[in-house]
Every structure is written in structure tokens, then in C-alpha cells.
């Protein structure tokens, strides 16, 4: 472990974060070789295409290696050696994705002069990252995210101790501001969207013929939520409760509340992973989320939300 730690710690803080975030660990039970179009144009000396018999693989997108700028020979070799050492410590074979053409071309030129640089590396087809659609709602995910009876009892007694009518349709609105307000990328819950989207869901439930609707606001910004809904005069018109779970309770307590009571969940800061899992474990499994998730138009697409979740764009 010390040698592995030494490899990682010797990378600059920035590059180590980028490297580790880009690392995708995949245990391949089998490899779909596909047709000839899946094969890379270049297979560097020392590397080979993965076979079905190759079962213990660590695949990665190497940042310096796979960019046309800023990825000089020093950075690329550093990535390859560090990655190979990590894979060895995990008893796996290092692998590069077959569509990483820039990286493979760079390696091909390097091994002309360093013939053993990538000995033992494999080339694999990139897996489908939209695994979440298959996983969401599955028995396996429900098993992994199951709460203890103790936590569920605490959610009943401490989060909102009053009896909740089982005949009422509960809309749970997750809000997140706090640290997101200081972030350059993450878009926090905004007042106009939060209020308007809540009104929209109430009308939607009424159109479905659901007359008894109750709204619960969950998150760590209770004072802000009370203020915006009071300003909109919604609290006097509908059955709306702002919940602020005490900090001494377990951090996933709002998830347990959602599991018990939330029929429809609204994510007003849709990039929040806390809100994400609140929707995933919610009782009704009907989730609406804001399509706008960043403070600027990113140059990449974040597509983390399951296809059966419903986007709202205001």
C-alpha cells in the first residue's frame, strides 16, 4: 500500500484529482469484441485486444494521454506507469479504451523507442455508462439502499412526528443552496423555479384527480424555503410544511423520510447527489428534476438522471 500511496502522492494535487476522477474501474465478466469497426486503428507494441477470457481488468480514460494539447511525453509516461502500478496492486490488468485513438497513437510512437512501456496493457471497448437506467428500481439497488428499522423509526418520530394521512399525496421538494452558492458550476435552488415548479406539480396532481395534496420541503435551507413560500402566499393556500432535520440525526435521515412518505419528488438543484438519492429511494418513485443544473452553459453534457424521471424546464 505504501508504494501505491507513493505513486499517487507524487502526482501534483491537480493532476491526481483529475486522474483519479477519470479512472473507471470495470470488472468484465466478458468482453464484447463487436465487429471490425470497434477495433482501434492502431494497436501499439506490447498491447493486445481483450479476450472473453480476460476477466480482471482496470480500464481508464487517461487525461494527458488522450489530449492533443498539454499531454507531453513526461505526463503520458507518468500516467501509464502510475496506472499500471495501481492495476498491479489491485491484481488487475490495465486497459485503455479502444476509442482513445489519440492516446493509442501517442503510445505507438513512444514504444518505438521504449518497447516495454505498455507490456501487458489491454485494449477494451468502452462500456455503456448509462447503467443507471437498468439499475434504478431494481431489486438489487433497493437492497443496497435499504434502511435499518431504527433509522425509519427515527424518521417517523423526529423528522415530522405528527401523523401523516396515508390518503394524502405527498410532494417532497428538495432544496439545496448553501455551498452551491459559492460554487462556480453547481446551480443552487432558485426561488422562482422552486415556487413555480411546486405550483406546477400541485396543478398536475389535481388534474390527475388527486384532491388531497400535501407539500414537504426538505433540505438544509429551511429559513430560505419558509421565506420564499411565504412571499408567494403558498403556505396559506396549500398544506405545506418546511422540514429542517436536526443536525444530530444521521445524515441520510431525509432519505428515510422520502422512503416512508414521498409520492412525488421534485429536485430543484438537480446536480445535488443528496437530492438524487432522495428521489431514487422515494416511496412513489416519481421524480421531477430541473433541466438546468449549472450556472453557465457547460462544454460537456451531464446526463445522470434516469430516463423515467421527468425533466422540468422553466
From TrEMBL:
InterPro entries: Alpha-1-2_FucT, Glyco_trans_11. GO terms for molecular function: galactoside 2-alpha-L-fucosyltransferase activity. It comes from the Eukaryota. Coiled coil: none annotated. It holds the Pfam family Glyco_transf_11. GO terms for cellular component: membrane. GO terms for biological process: carbohydrate metabolic process. The chain crosses the membrane at residues 12-31. Keywords: Glycosyltransferase, Membrane, Transferase, Transmembrane, Transmembrane helix. This is L-Fucosyltransferase.
